[in-house]
Specification:
Helix content is about 25%, strand content about 30%. It is an alpha/beta fold. The chain folds into 2 domains: about 5-55 and about 105-175 and about 280-320, FAD/NAD(P)-binding domain, CATH 3.50.50.60; about 180-280, Polyamine Oxidase, Chain A, domain 2. A 6-stranded mixed sheet has the order 8-2-1-12-19-18, with helices on one face. The chain has a 6-stranded mixed sheet with strand order 6-14-15-16-13-17, covered by helices on one side. Helix 1 runs parallel beside helix 8 (about 305-320). The chain is globular and about 65 Å long. The chain binds flavin-adenine dinucleotide. Flavin-adenine dinucleotide binds near residues 37, 181, 274 and 300. Flavin-adenine dinucleotide binds near residues 9, 56 and 306.
């Protein structure tokens, strides 16, 4: 049995770790406090909280549809019904969209896939080195670990920083541009508008989702997740830390203006800036495996901008490792 280190607990890391664990020893590390990467769930209190990355899954490929159906059957995922308003008429996706969400949060898939795997959180990998056919890993807290095989699932800019010199494929020299997103989670007084989500046709605000319409918890307040457009976030993201209040205010104002919901006091608000949200230009490979160094990479940005892309990349990597 060889030992694998997987870095990242999003869909890509969770999928590859789960598949490898059937035959190998697997440890998983993530720099975040909890599971799910860009599908994480911001908890306010017990079950109450916000999906502040992935909003819903809309499976496209037959294999992923099958995987998602299986998780619905196992009651890990469910459909998100309700009234989804497309103010962005150009897309007109209204009819065909299925919206699948986690029963408790959109990190439920990662939780399910990683339930039997040793996971270490708040463990940021800072440096990797290859010596005597082993990977020497150094973490932010100074810990050092040795593994035979390493799989990385970080966003592209973070990957290049960590291991560019070890990757022997031209994809690593490409300029993979990952768009940003600024997300604001708010709690407001309950309104009588029975809408679950809005797609906007706006330069600033892209999407708003009413968390309590997902029927995971009951609340006498309304919880909304507001996500900016990529264009607006790309301009603001580098200074978002210093301008959180201002950027939140702009998104909240826009939300009331575009939805027509009567402006009320914001009882709670939390701003999260995603520097690397998604890449919409797929590469010409789905994952990367170097069998001489035992180094692998899988992530959504190889394949596309959605959670499904991360799953496809991880499945592809697993096939390469098995060969
Ligand atoms: C705001 C937003 C909205 C989105 N909405 C949707 C949607 O509605 N539907 C959809 O299908 N997709 C959506 N997406 C895209 C989807 O979230 C991603 O495609 C998917 O989650 C990517 O999964 P991944 O495992 O490839 O990467 P990630 O989820 O980013 O996982 C990578 C993990 O690696 C960890 N990591 C990185 N570097 C290190 C390091 N050095 N050491 C340790 N750990 C490290 C990170 O903490 C992270 O947990 C959205 C994304 C964002 C940001």
């Amino acid at each position: 049995m060889s030992s694998f280190c997987v870095v990242g607990s999003g869909i890509s890391g969770a999928t590859i770790a789960n598949l490898l664990s059937k035959r190998h020893l697997v440890d998983l590390f993530d720099k975040a406090k909890s599971i799910g990467g860009r599908s994480s769930f911001k908890r306010l209190d017990k079950a109450i909280g916000f999906d502040h990355g992935t909003q819903y899954i809309s499976p496209k490929s037959p294999a992923f549809k099958k995987f998602i159906k299986g998780l619905i059957r196992k009651k890990i995922l469910k459909n998100w019904n309700g009234k989804h308003l497309f103010l962005n008429q150009a897309k007109n996706e209204k009819k065909k969209h299925t919206k699948v969400i986690g029963r408790k949060g959109n990190n439920d898939i990662s939780k399910y896939l990683l339930k039997n795997i040793n996971c270490y959180f708040q463990s940021e990998l800072k440096k990797i080195d290859y010596k005597q056919k082993k990977w020497n890993l150094t973490f932010a807290d100074g810990q050092k670990k040795i593994y035979e095989k390493v799989i990385l699932t970080c966003p592209f800019p973070q990957l290049t920083k960590l291991c560019k010199k070890f990757i022997k494929n031209s994809f690593i020299n490409k300029k993979v541009k990952m768009d940003a997103n600024i997300t604001v989670m708010i709690v407001i007084k309950k309104t009588n508008k029975n809408i679950s989500s809005y797609f906007f046709n706006d330069k600033i605000l892209g999407w708003a989702a009413k968390e309590n319409s997902k029927n995971r918890f009951k609340s006498n307040l309304d919880l909304w997740t507001l996500q900016s457009t990529y264009k607006w976030a790309n301009k603001k993201i580098n200074k978002n830390k210093e301008s959180k209040d201002l950027n939140s205010k702009v998104l909240i104002e826009q939300f009331f203006k575009l939805t027509g919901i009567k402006k009320t006091k914001t009882l709670f608000s939390f701003n999260h800036g995603w520097k690397y949200s998604s890449n919409s230009k797929p590469l010409n490979i789905k994952s990367y495996w170097d069998s001489s160094l035992n180094l692998g990479v899988c992530a959504d940005w190889f394949v596309g901008p959605r959670l499904e892309a991360g799953w496809i990349s991880a499945i592809d990597l697993f096939k390469k490792i098995k060969k």
